[in-house]
Specification:
The complex is a heterodimer.
Chain A (H helix, E strand, L loop, with lengths): L1 H17 L14 H18 L2 H9 L6 H14 L4 H22 L4
Helix pairs in contact in A: 2-3, 2-4, 2-5, 4-5
Chain B lengths: L6 H22 L14 H18 L2 H9 L6 H15 L3 H16 L4 H4 L58 E14 L3 E7 L10 E6 L2 E6 L10 E5 L6 E5 L6 E4 L3 E3 L5 E12 L1
Parallel strand pairs in B: 2-9
Antiparallel strand pairs in B: 1-9, 2-5, 3-4, 3-6, 6-7, 8-9
Helix pairs in contact in B: 2-3, 2-5, 4-5
């Protein structure tokens, strides 16, 4: 039993520390929050220039979050926390506002 | 009476335990990567990420920031990665706008300065990095872009003005006013496929990137730009011909057409046949 226990310990050490599972082809939803924030800022920058909300939504979908409004809000709060400039925050806020309006429009039942 | 056990029992136990440990560590509870960096993204995701960087660059004209963001993708040569993706998407033809943005970014990176003068409407700030430009030191692959906009602003100079909703279809470098100074069939080295090689320079002899080239034939048309193969020169572009077809090439929408371009067949001294190229050199008037 002791030998098995030691073996398990060695196996775990090897599998977790020495040679852990390598993730080289990750998907965007695993990106760290600061990278996600910068990505959302990029989308906001492009959106301000293009004015194309569909395209912005398509780009945000890349991050694989269920709610785009939540995504932009969450990243904006983070961006504010770490001191993004007012200019950048305004772009993100603009995107957030338009996304919210769009979401409301989608939820409103047709008369 | 106590049974005497040899070292094999110990080794077997270790082996079983080790196997169980590995199964647990690799399959049941593997290391989870939840806070990954863009450099670990799958290749197609990286392409999408890069395209958004280019779209943001078109909007803010901030080459420093675009470069810093590209570094996050961990490409060995960020410039080449952008140029190759632009070429690839142009060839695929399904994401022309993305290809255009990537092409402009590649060209501007190749020139070392934002190409606002070449590619933008006058509303754009001509390549002056915004107050919020990221600091490269804070944007290495190890350090995420958290500080990218965290630099305190000393004044409130506005960044790039909003661009018009409709972006220009092509770089605004003038497409007229080019003179064809050389048109020649060359057989200097065997090529795998027949080519048209275009070289565009300004009046001072400086290679010109971002010049639109339109090649048409009976059943099709292709548009591409100079400067997307920077290793061959910023004024360089090439196009692969299909044997049996006749092509017409012009610079920009209103350039003077060069007619009758077809695959160049060459022959060496031993009678071996191989493909050659058309060389077309243009100089801006």
């Amino acid at each position: 039993m002791l030998a098995i226990a030691v073996g398990v310990g060695l196996g775990l050490f090897y599998g977790w520390v020495i040679r852990p599972v390598e993730y080289v082809d990750t998907s965007p939803n695993t990106l760290r929050i600061d990278y996600k924030s910068d990505y959302v800022l990029m989308v906001a920058e492009a959106y301000q220039a293009e004015g194309n909300l569909d395209k912005a939504i398509q780009r945000l979908t890349f991050l694989g979050e269920a709610s785009l409004v939540d995504l932009v809000y969450k990243t904006m709060v983070f961006a504010e926390t770490i001191g993004y400039t007012d200019t950048d925050l305004a772009k993100m806020q603009n995107l957030l506002s338009d996304l919210k309006a769009y979401s409301l429009l989608q939820e409103t039942p047709a008369p | 009476m106590r049974e005497k056990r040899g070292p094999w029992y110990l080794l077997t136990g270790l082996l079983i335990g080790f196997t169980l440990g590995l199964i647990y560590a690799w399959a049941i509870q593997p290391v989870e990567y939840i806070d990954t960096a863009p450099s670990s993204l799958r290749a197609d995701f990286k392409d999408q990420y890069r395209a958004v960087i280019a779209a943001a660059y078109l909007a803010n004209s901030d080459l420093v920031r675009a470069r810093a963001r590209l570094v996050l993708l961990g490409d060995e040569d960020t410039f080449r990665a952008v140029a190759e993706q632009a070429q690839r998407q142009l060839a695929e033809g399904d994401k022309v706008e993305e290809a255009r943005a990537l092409g402009i970014l590649a060209i501007d990176m190749g020139q070392g300065v934002p190409g606002a003068a070449l590619t933008r409407t006058p509303q754009a700030t001509s390549g002056i990095p915004s107050q919020a430009s990221p600091q490269p030191a804070l944007l290495s692959t190890d350090a995420p872009p958290t500080g990218s906009t965290a630099q305190p602003t000393t004044n409130n100079t506005p960044t790039a003005s909003p661009f018009p909703t409709s972006m220009p279809v092509s770089p605004t470098i003038t497409q007229t006013g080019f003179s064809l100074v050389r048109q020649e069939e060359v057989c200097t080295s065997p090529l795998q496929a027949p080519l048209i090689i275009v070289d565009v320079k300004d009046a001072a002899g400086t290679p010109l990137a971002g010049v639109l080239i339109i090649v048409t034939w009976d059943s099709g048309e292709e548009r591409f730009y100079t400067g997307l193969k920077p290793e061959k020169g910023m004024g360089y572009a090439d196009f692969t011909l299909t044997a049996g077809l006749v092509y017409t090439l012009r610079l920009g929408e209103s350039g003077t057409p060069v007619y009758g371009l077809s695959a160049v067949e060459c022959q060496d001294a031993q009678g071996n046949r191989y493909w050659g190229a058309w060389i077309l050199e243009f100089v801006q008037l």
